[in-house]
């Protein structure tokens, strides 16, 4: 530098002060009033619920989409024949004000209420349902959930294209507001199906206005176009940002609806979601990170809402593969897992150890207890299978889709198997689609799986494992089991009888051990004190009609 | 100004066949900061090398009941949620991170420098063509590319390193090419030609050494890049397999629990940062050492 | 000049075409289709879906029809979001990502070049080491670390700024921009430092001083242009990188930007969306490289001269 | 009362390797309308002396130890930076050596001219603009108005230097420091610039401090001369005294160094070693400009053992010709014979064996050496490449080379930047003769060097030519130099040979006006005629 650098120095000092100042001002300007006026507070005043909703919904066409986030939104926009009481989960009248069930339990006759309206004022009539269900079952549409209709007579046939005349399907319009549904077998949980969004009605004129009913590219369900019959109507939809629904004046029970609007935020990143909650940007989170739970437990337990959830976390075993084709091996592996330890430690006591596929307490169903954690017997079984102390037991992978908790469990279990059985497994994560591909093609040894029930009945779990069932994926096959699930149980009217049959089936299943149950899910949320009417329940089901905000909190 | 003739003492008779590199080493020794950096790196490397023998615990040895305890006498850097010793994890993580850092970077260096040098020296159509190729690769969807690799060839550390390196070399190629283009106008290159040196020799002996400065600087920037890239890929599940770990991965998990278990973030973070700093100092030192002019100030 | 631009644009076409081709077959080669899901998909449904999305046609035919659509500016329907077209999604995400990238770049340039110049004025003094060390930290700091830390400090502890969102509440754009810009600021700092160091030794600065110009004029008027040349030629690639690299930040801050679409698309195997975003980004990369070349030329009169002719 | 009085000025540099007394107690005065010339080699401290007065040297490491510099009744050395700035460019302005680097390439000429005006006199843009135009015209730049908006690179070297001068004059300073203002220019241009300076000085009655390494340059313009070495004045006196009876013998050496005499022709015109036939070299004119014809159907023979001088100004294509002969650039058409072997279109591979027999020495000893190779590497490379010697003899061979080009052996492990220009050129020469070539193209080998060094290098070349009986094509823009060692001379202009002949022919009976122009341009002709110069330089 030249002697003039002193000069520079002063000048620079000046600008050095200048630029940060500039930045700061920019900063403050953009801060504006600051974020002290939180969404939750304003929401409470205006009756607007801000909700963390997991991922961005694929769409809101009830007959196309699948998945929980979609469920929440569609549940606000549409209403089926029946709904559920969030406290008891008992069926409540929805669009249908009443229904009759025939003696043999095969024919349901629904009376639609006359004040049910679409959000454009049109009445909701029986034909709307028939039309919607035909649409949902049309093969071209490719609805993933069409099997929800299969209890209905000939529905499956129509869906698979075996029958192409919908009039043969057990759905009849007896009057403008009378709908008759004929079943293949008496299906005691049918009413629950009619509360599932895949059976919700859509507004035929609107759908037709935007293309053929089976057109997936149709714009009918977009904001501005869509016409709905639920408690709310869609007003705003910005992909990956938020979806806003507002109270519908045409809803038959509008007086009972307390919220003026709900805003759903996609929150894939649970760390961020928790921070949004802490920053009072949302009333209710979709999830809580495991590591956060202890903190809240100790500091603000009142904010946590944890409840058993109708879902099971388990490992698939590829029974078509050496050495897992040996039931003793499978049992050994299962018995060697100390589920209690797992739950107490890395799972932060959030889940319940599970020894069967069906979660306990599903409407009074109690799964059989076929085995327990028993390292001794596990070792013994493995020895019988020809691998004493895990000697020359081939090393294998534990496949799971990339997600920290799956990894934690895999790592822990791998360790347990190593210690108790001396078999060496490697946790092996794959990106979601790859993981699906591997399991679908039986290209795995042990693979992580989770199943959430579609409705509250053992069937939604047990019918997975029927021979070549789409979700079986283990190669497990047992004729007696199939017989029980497909024929006997559906035909049985008496609840207790049915449950006995299911227990028999599940016992068969667990003795064959094609899957290793690990834990029963619990739903876990952070809930702002002002949020009321969202009670915990095993379906993690919300009925928006019941929800309200208590600003005084 | 005055031609700086430093009195360099050396025995008259036998000048050992000196190379730029040997000289650079001599000069590097004089640079305190980079020697410290070098020392630190060597230390880290040795530790990572010996980890299997000197690590206080086994790297997957977990004690679920001792989950996530802060630093203590038994566990100097605390334990993670599995009750695995953090120090051990970091030591093992270092093995991966350093490996990826160096392998991937050297891949990038090797390909990038040769490619760039050739393109820059050849000029004209060859150059244009080669650079278009770079553009194409530059614009490819990197993640899909990696996913595919991982699936087709199966998960494999070396492959991952190669894949990362194969991406990082593009920028390197651009830089080197630019350098070479301007250098090749220099008269000493003409002189070399008039001596009858083959293009290869000219590139190796006359061009690349003079392009080293920016290359080294960029390299010191690439190493952190690839380490973090590895972390990111692993985080997406495309990288290394748990229970194995790397610094980047440790950090990215540490971030999620930084409020509950800060030590899970702080220690890996510190290790990574210090290492990269050391690297950077070494890099700058090396650059100066390789430039006879600079090293004299 | 226009000739030059035209030429470069022409050169870009094969580049982009190649990118499309590679990507097109790459994504289809990747395991797991767009419709595979955890719930079993019955063969009929699978078939129906593939029919609707033209996936039942031979790959080559799909490829050709995609290109023909693309030429007409139609990037096809999204495979993941029924009823939404790729064009729609991209043009929803782009402005946001672009804005984010712009702010980040702005921050990067202001802070970076400032630090670099400061450092270059007194090389190998504290005035040099301090900013350069900070820059180094910036380089070591991945956004997936910096972001959450900033949120924790400014969003939660100090409660100055919102922790997420984009344009939903005041000041929610500050943290993402800083997070994204930090690393580039560090790079630019290093670039501008070396650039300035080079210029500071030029004769024409001596000339300027000999005229009796005060030092700050010498620096700001005479040194800066030459010194920041490397920065300018870096801006193009940097901005492109910002756009394509923004998704980490977008996920951390729940920003509905292009980057997030891109990554989600990759994981959802949303073929058309992947292609769309890729084509788009690669075009951007090409364009911005071109722009920065022009900008560099514009600052460098000799080149500007050649352009004019 | 003189404009500027410098008394006992001392400037030291405190570097790591100890104190360097750059300027060591010098005193001199500058009178209005007179020129004081400071003569000395690079490193003699002449520039430092002048810059230090205006506080333009880096301090630290520089430090003004003692002295007084009285200007306008104030001691510049005592002024604050702020006050000094008022003097710089206003009272005293500087013309720097290299016009290519002294103008800011990123600013238009106009801006750079107006800058000092607006700064020192606070003129409005308009006034400054007008004044700048006037001054540009005064220094002889045509249609100045447009040129104001031109960029530096749009000017030729000479024109740029005029701009630089204009920039120095625009503030009507009382003193101008001209630091080697013509060294980087062609002779004819040099002559013009010198003339211009003189005129302006007379017209505006300015005091000039003229710094140069070349006595002959100042011969015509200096009133008083100070000969400087090691930061001291060896001799100060008015021009005639210094030239006619130099007191100090360093001054004598300087005088001797002026290449005066002509070499007695060794006119053995046997079979030509190199012969060129209708040689044409074209370059693609870059971005949409038509191709440049650098060499336009030149035919030429270079006889064995002769030194052929090739004279021409920059852009005349002389260097291209030299490079074409050594096949560094490819001829567009025509033939090149080397020892009757046609090499016009040899491939790299086929050239390789020949390379050892033909070598080239470049003008710029800074650019022509790989900065990252030591002397040892540089010299060893050709030896190894062409297997001149076994590895074990290598060191001996290298040392031998160093001896023959007069480099001290202990510098064998040093890098180019550690040497002075002359020494570097010696290294370059060493590299050229390493392969024991028969033919050497010397492309302006001395024009970048101080006169004294020039003399040494020229003598070295002559000596080597004798020892290894080389044939040489000696390219230069300086007739004086060419005359000093050539047997024959060819003059080149715009790619064409305009004149060929023996030295005496060309110098005594030039047939072309162009040649005459060149001859007239030789600086210090007066001097050459005026005084008897020892026929052999004693170095």
Strand percent estimate of chain B: under 5%
- How many beta-strand elements of chain A? 18
What structural class do the secondary elements of chain B suggest? mainly alpha
How many DSSP helices of chain B?
10
Biggest sheet: strand arrangement of chain A? 12-16-11-15-13-14
Q: Main β-sheet of chain B: number of strands, strand sense, barrel status?
A: none
The 3D shape of chain A can be described as: globular
Low-pLDDT runs of chain B: 1-17
* Largest interface, C-beta closer than 8 angstroms, per-chain residues: A-C, 78 and 73 residues
Q: Please give the oligomerization state of what you see.
A: heterotetramer
Count of β-strands of chain B? 0
Helix content of chain B: over 70%
Q: Residue-averaged pLDDT of chain B, rounded?
A: 79
Mean pLDDT of chain A: 88
Unreliable stretches of chain A? 1-18, 28-35
Largest sheet of chain A: 6 strands, mixed
- The share of residues in helices of chain A is 25-40%
Helix and strand arrangement:
The complex is a heterotetramer of chains A (553), B (297), C (309) and D (539).
Chain B: H1 20-30, H2 32-54, H3 86-122, H4 124-139, H5 142-153, H6 157-183, H7 187-195, H8 199-236, H9 247-256, H10 263-290
Helix pairs in contact in B: 1-10, 2-3, 2-10, 3-4, 3-6, 3-8, 3-9, 4-6, 5-6, 6-8, 7-8, 8-9, 8-10, 9-10
Chain C: H1 2-29, H2 43-52, H3 59-71, H4 86-121, H5 126-140, H6 143-157, H7 174-200, H8 203-210, H9 215-227, H10 229-244, H11 247-252, H12 258-268, H13 271-299, H14 301-308
Chain D: E1 4-15, E2 18-30, E3 35-39, H1 46-53, E4 62-71, E5 74-75, H2 81-87, E6 92-95, H3 99-102, H4 109-121, H5 125-138, H6 144-147, H7 157-169, E7 175-179, H8 187-204, E8 207-212, H9 215-219, E9 224-229, E10 232-238, H10 239-244, H11 249-257, E11 272-283, E12 292-303, E13 307-311, H12 318-325, E14 333-338, E15 341-342, H13 348-355, E16 358-361, H14 375-385, H15 394-404, H16 421-434, E17 439-443, H17 451-467, E18 471-476, H18 479-485, E19 488-493, E20 496-502, H19 503-508, H20 513-521, H21 525-530
Parallel strand pairs in D: 3-8, 3-9, 6-7, 7-8, 13-18, 13-19, 16-17, 17-18
Antiparallel strand pairs in D: 1-2, 1-4, 4-5, 9-10, 11-12, 11-14, 14-15, 19-20
Helix pairs in contact in D: 4-5, 5-7, 7-8, 8-20, 11-17, 14-15, 14-16, 15-16, 16-17
